Structure formats: C-alpha cells, structure tokens
Amino acid sequence: MARLQADADKLQSEADRLHQEVARTQGETDAILREMDDRTRRIMRDMGVNLRIVHEDTNFGDLYTDFVARDFPESYVQQLASSESLETIVHVVATLQERIKWNNRTVLLVGTMPVMTVSQKNESKGHMIKPIKPGTVLVGHELGFDRQVGDEIEINGHTFTIAEIKPEFGGLQDVQLVVDLHDAQRVLEKPDRVNQILALGCKCKGDRISVIRKELEGVLPETKITEDRNLATAREEQRDLVAAKRKEQLALVEANLLAAKQNLEAARETYEQQAARRDRQQRVLARLINVVTPAVVLIAALFVGLMTWLNVRERRAEIGLLRALGKRTAEIAALFLGKAAGIGLLGGVVGVVVGLIIVRSIGQSLGITPDYLQTNATILAITLAGAPL
Q1: pLDDT tens-digit profile of 68-110?
Q2: Pair 352, 384: CB distance under 8 Å
Q3: 3-state class (DSSP) for residue 149
Q4: 98 pairs with which residues across the strands?
Q5: Where are the domains of the chain?
Q6: pTM for this structure?
Q7: Secondary structure (DSSP) of 286-324
Q8: By C-alpha distance, which of 199, 141, 148 is closest to 172?
C-alpha cells in the first residue's frame, strides 16, 4: 500500500507540474500576442491615413498632378467629426495645401490640424497625427539642406521656426513645408478654408469605400471621397495576418493543453488499473491464506499426533526396558516429547523457508513484485515457536 500511495503522490505531482507548465505557456503566448497587436497597431498608424475627402467639384486629375482642389469651409471638418452617425471614419485631419514659390523653388505648402471624432473621444488613445505647434514648420528633406532645427525661415512674408527636418522619404514629402492649418490659411490668405479632409477608414471587409460613401452622403453631401487602395489593402492584409497568427498560437496552446490533459488522464487510468489489479491480487492471497493455513495446520497436527502415537506404540519394549532400569514416567515422557519438539522445530524452519520460496514464486507468476510480499518477523517467530506444539 505504501508503494501505491507513492505512485499516487507522484501522479499528483506530475499533474500539478503539467498545469503549471500549461499556465506558463499560455501566459507567454498571451504576452506575445499582446505585443504583436501593439506592434501591428503602431505599424498601421505609421502607414498614415488612407481616405481623402474633397469638394464635389474637385477634379482628381488636377489634384494628383497640380495639387489643385476646390476649397470649402473649415466648419465641414467639425461637422464631420461631431457626427454621431459616422462610424467608418476616424483620425480626421483638416488640410489646406497649395503649390507656392519658396527660395526660387516650387514647393508644396501643407497646413494640417488633427481633429478627434465622436467615436474617438470615448477612447483613451489620442490622435495618430500629432498637431503642429503654431509658428513652427516641418521642412522636407530636399528643402532642409544647410538648415538646422531652430533656424527661422520666411514663407510668403511670414516667419516660421524649423521644428523638424524630415528624413528622406523618396517622394512628395521631401518637398513639403508642413505648418499648422491656421498658419497656412494666413499664408495663403484663405481664412477658415480647407481643400482636403484626410482620414483613416474603417476595418470593413469587402467594398469598404461604398460603405464609407454611403455614410458620408448623410453628413457632407457636397463632398466626395477616394481611397488609397494600396494602404487600405495593406492594412487589411496585416490585420488578417495578425488574426491568423493569433488563431494559430491559441490553437497551439489549446492543443498542448489537450495533450497534457490526455496524458494525465491516461496516467490516471493506468494507475487506477494497477491499483485495482493489486487489490484483486491481495484479496486472492488473503482468501488463499484463510483457507489453506487452517487446513495445513490441521493436517500437520493430525500427522504429528499420528506419528507420535505410532512412535510410542512401536517403542513399548524400549519404554518397558527404561522402566526396568528405574526411569520414571516423567523422564520417559520428556525424552519422547523432546524428540518430537526437536523434529517439530526443524520442520517449522524447513516449512517457513519452503513456504517463502513458494509464495514468492506464486507472486511473480501473478505479477506481484517482491515489495508487496514482506515477511513479518513477529508472525515468523510465532510460527517457529508453535511448530513443536
């Protein structure tokens, strides 16, 4: 029974270890997935906006080639951002851009102002576009040669301090001067006017732009919208990739957990089967002992009594001779009983040895290990002492 208890304790210890290992693995997986989600959000944020809202009279061909767009009131931006029915557009950026001459070069002056939508105001995270401090300018890489942060430059008679010289992008950003929206309105003499609203589109599947246009018609009917499909598709593919990776990791954790549970259950079933088999074997041995032992003792007693009686009967002549020699009855009885006791003791020793050998042989044939066939010293002493009797 001590061995069975040791096996049970070992099995429980293994079960606890498996549960701890699964919990640790699941915790590590959750941490990896959270980090992956955070990185994905940062990547998609840095990819920028993917929607462009302009006045309905704007020609996209002129906009893409000459950056010419029909301007409209700045109040449209607040109207868009404050609409509670608009759920597909976030991270709105009011924009006024126009080509100008600066230091004998044609550059693109861009005024921006990030605006929070109603849906974003309920979130703890801020706008993806950082506002530009009034009176400062972000200078494109091609326009920043021989200039440093903190230098002052003039744009159409207005003085600005360089807040940052942008790294090389290899595109239109390299020839931009980016300022606060209201500063751009002053420079271009277009107060309270914008000509673009940039925004980040929804995470919708399928025909995203149709869903957004339908919502926009009810808020700003005099505008139209276009989508940078490359950015939108890249965002969608990135989200799908993260979702697939999350699903794969969770499936792996669940598979490991299921395998651990199955292994634990198999070990538990094996232990229960072994315990049941050993219990049956012990019951068989107990019944065998309860039946065989009394029978053997009875037969041995009858045999010893018979042999003693025959021995006394056959040696009546010797008894008579001993009496004639003057031996008393007690001495003659002690002689015969002493001989019987010696033979009984010798027989007890031989019986115990032979019995142990037989029991161990039977135990091995029944699959019982020697650990479960322990010899009790007290019972052995009683057996040897009782054998002569």
Answers
A1: 889 999 999 888 888 877 777 778 899 999 999 999 899 999 9
A2: yes
A3: coil
A4: 109
A5: 51-227, 270-386
A6: 0.53
A7: HHHHHHHHHHHHHHHHHHHHHHHHHHHHHTHHHHHHHHH
A8: 141
